[in-house]
Write a structure and sequence with these properties.
CATH superfamily of the largest domain in chain B: Thiamin diphosphate (ThDP)-binding fold, Pyr/PP domains
Oligomer: heterodimer
Mean pLDDT of chain B: 97
Largest sheet of chain B: 7 strands, mixed
Structural class of chain A: alpha/beta
Strand order of the largest sheet of chain A: 1-2-3-7-6
Strand content of chain A: 5-15%
Strand content of chain B: 15-25%
Number of domains of chain B: 2
Distance between the termini of chain A: 56 Å
Shape of chain A: globular
Bound molecules: thiamine diphosphate, magnesium ion
Order of helices and strands of chain A: HHEHHHEHEEEHEHEHHH
Radius of gyration of chain B: 20 Å
Structural class of chain B: alpha/beta
Low-confidence stretches of chain B: none
Helix content of chain B: 25-40%
CATH topology of the largest domain in chain B: Rossmann fold
Largest sheet of chain A: 5 strands, parallel
Largest interface: A-B, 40 and 35 residues
Radius of gyration of chain A: 19 Å
């Protein structure tokens, strides 16, 4: 049987997952040093979800998520320098320093944010899918949400419209088992998110979100389905966040053993590294080269984020409205 | 009654605890209010004392639990609905305005909705545009609501208790940056409540009136100190309640000072300052020696960058300059 992934694809996926992990570690440090402020939500532990899904997308596809968005942006191939500089609130950031960690966008990469209001991205993603269908551009919108967000009413209003109008949208519920300090058992009656589209005829799947290959496989099914005009699809990703909800959360609602257990047994990056070595027989040196390269990329991003100047004071009043009329 | 020192956070908690103890229909509901003891630890210890029937953790469904609170109030209970921050009340605004605020009137006085919506309001620090919204003017726009926004711990406690006992929907706007601040003005008497709708003159002065609420009261008081060094005696009015506004106290002050500066952290257009300006035109025109000056936040969504955020918010120096302008002094 051929391998589920080519060596080149594997190296690329490993590169992206590790980039996210190392990027987030540095972001955490910069927060500790006071260079990043406000809310900062790290993606560590969930890397396989976004990397697996993004790996099968086409250039015209669109992506939207909430505030735990650094991983999504890096997986959309946004420049780590621009992302890190937004975290430090500098002019070289993707939003010129005006958005911050939770509010970043890239038209060029079809990344539509970066949203701070839990659940609000879900109807917006549905609207992006509406535009794909309207314009007949063959695109699909990937709309990410958390297990907590999945309880917002607008999610179900979206499911109904998406199914009614057969919109090309894949809803990805990143079930990391907690919304802030509340476990899914305490927030959700019948916490099976993949089945929540049933009433509207939306197919769903539960996927091991810590296994890159499983994510990729399921994403292909879901995206093909949506792209073929059949309508929306729900993927529930069973995953885990390693850090507190944000930098100010000591995460006392879960045990150290629980966190360590996941890191030890299910770490998406360790697992995939072993797979590359044992199954794909990729020489360890090649993997180490990637690891070295990422160190440099992340250090450069940090350096850029520290030295990029603050936005010019005149930027306070720009970008509120577009200039001109009828343009 | 003795006055004791505590933080605003503790004062709010004590207010809720006393009212929940006093009246079995009072309960607290919101995201992370119970097991996590509040996202900002305002409900610290309440679950331990009152149990999960009275202190209820919700899913992240603001529109749902705000509406549920309204229904519970119609049904004879007295809900305290916490928004983790008021930014998220935007999800629930329809229930607050269309259901809570209007139903007494629409029912010809039958229904009534004794409910408190509370939580931190306005800018915290570096949390960006979607998490820095001040709702004072938005909610104060609506008949059928009362809107309170206290500064000190003592006021926070006595006014939250008044809000819980009030038979109407009350929007209670707190401030995250004030939570940790100590004040020596907290009454230990569980029956001490303050009337809603009464401002407080926090500093007397004869030259210019400064009106402010919530965190801006502290800035106004600091500005008054600096102004005193320059020979200007500012009178600082802590509005405490935004709706109904204590116009009487402001007019009395303006009759004495003949000059007024209004201070708020939110946007200028149709803000609290605009309302005060209109009221002064109507009720104190003959006493004004200078036009009212509004000190407000910049008319933009809140930027994240440190330097821009600083520029977007009223600073003590901005208030000092505005007061001097109102007094026709040359700016420093
Ligand atoms: C409408 C709204 N309510 C509350 C919040 C505060 N809040 C931010 S993140 C969060 C938890 C969300 O959990 P989940 O959807 O599971 O995503 P995760 O953080 O686990 O990625 C809450 C309650 C918010 N930002 N928006
Ligand atoms: Mg979650």
């Amino acid at each position: 049987m051929p391998n589920a992934i080519s060596k080149d694809e594997a190296l690329k996926a490993y590169h992206e997952m590790l980039l996210i992990r190392r990027f987030e570690e540095r972001a955490g440090q910069l927060y500790g040093m006071g260079l990043i402020a406000g809310f900062c939500h790290l993606y560590s532990g969930q890397e396989a979800v976004v990397v697996g899904i993004q790996s099968i997308l086409k250039p015209q596809d669109t992506v939207i998520t909430a505030y735990r968005d650094h991983g999504h942006m890096l997986a959309c191939e946004m420049d780590p320098k621009g992302v890190m500089a937004e975290l430090t609130g500098r002019s070289g950031g993707y939003s010129k320093g005006k958005g911050g960690s939770m509010h970043m966008f890239s038209r060029e990469k079809n990344f539509f944010g970066g949203h701070g209001i839990v659940g609000a991205q879900v109807p917006i993603g549905t609207g992006l899918a509406f535009a794909h269908k309207y314009k007949e551009d063959g695109g699909v919108c990937i709309t990410y949400m958390g297990d907590g967000a999945a309880n917002q009413g607008q999610v179900y209003e979206s499911y109904n419209m998406a199914s009614l109008w057969k919109l090309p949208v894949v809803y990805v519920v990143e079930n990391n088992h907690y919304g802030m300090g509340t476990s899914v058992e305490r927030s959700s009656a019948g916490p099976n998110y993949y089945g929540r589209g049933q009433g509207w005829g939306i197919p769903g799947e539960l996927v091991d979100g810590m296994e890159l290959l499983k994510v990729k496989e399921a994403a292909r099914r879901a995206v093909d389905y949506a792209r073929s005009g059949k309508g929306p699809y729900i993927l529930e990703m069973d995953t885990y966040r390693y850090r507190g909800h944000s930098m100010s959360d000591p995460a006392k609602y879960r045990s150290k053993e629980e966190v360590e257990g996941v890191k030890e047994k299910r770490d998406p990056i360790d697992h995939f590294r072993t797979y590359m070595l044992k199954t794909l027989k990729i020489p360890e040196d090649q993997i180490k080269d990637i690891e070295e390269e990422i160190k440099t990329v992340v250090l450069e991003a940090v350096e850029f984020a520290k030295t990029s100047p603050e936005p010019d004071p005149s930027e306070l009043y720009t970008d509120v409205l577009k200039e001109g009329e009828n343009v | 009654m003795t006055l004791i020192s505590m933080t605003v956070r503790e004062a709010l908690r004590d207010a809720m605890a006393e009212e929940i103890r006093r009246d079995e229909t009072v309960f607290l509901m919101g995201e992370e209010v119970a097991e996590y003891n509040g996202a900002y630890k305002v409900s610290q210890g309440l679950l331990d004392e009152f149990g999960p029937k009275r202190i209820v953790d919700t899913p992240i469904t603001e529109h749902g639990f705000a509406g549920l609170g309204v229904g519970a109030a119609f049904g004879g209970l007295r809900p305290i609905i916490e928004f983790m921050t008021f930014n998220f009340s935007m999800q629930a605004m329809d229930q607050i305005i269309n259901s809570a605020a209007k139903t007494l009137y629409m029912s010809g006085g039958q229904m009534g909705c004794p409910i408190v919506f509370r939580g931190p309001n306005g800018a915290a620090s570096r949390v960006g545009a979607q998490h820095s919204h001040c709702f004072a003017s938005l909610y104060a726009h609506c008949p059928g609501l009362k809107v309170i926004s206290p500064y000190s711990a003592g006021d926070a406690k006595a006014l939250l208790k008044a809000a819980i006992r009030d038979p109407n929907p009350v929007i209670f706007l707190e401030n995250e940056l004030l939570y940790g601040q100590h004040f020596d003005d907290v009454s230990d008497d569980p029956d001490h409540v303050l009337p809603i709708g009464k401002a407080l003159v926090r500093r007397e002065g004869k030259d210019v009136t400064l009106t402010a609420f919530s965190i801006m009261v502290g800035k106004a008081l600091q500005a008054a100190d600096l102004l005193a060094e320059q020979g200007i005696e500012a009178e600082v009015i802590d509005l405490r309640t935004i709706r109904p506004l204590d116009t009487e106290t402001i007019v009395q002050s303006v009759k004495k000072t003949n000059r007024i500066v209004s201070i708020e952290e939110s946007w200028p257009f149709a803000g609290i300052g605009s309302e005060i300006a209109a009221l002064m035109m109507e009720q104190a025109f003959d006493y004004l020696d200078a036009p009212l000056i509004r000190v407000t936040g910049a008319d933009v969504p809140m930027p994240y960058a440190a330097n821009l955020e600083h520029l977007a918010l009223p600073q003590v120096e901005t208030i000092v300059e505005a007061a001097k302008t109102a007094c026709y002094r040359t700016p420093s």
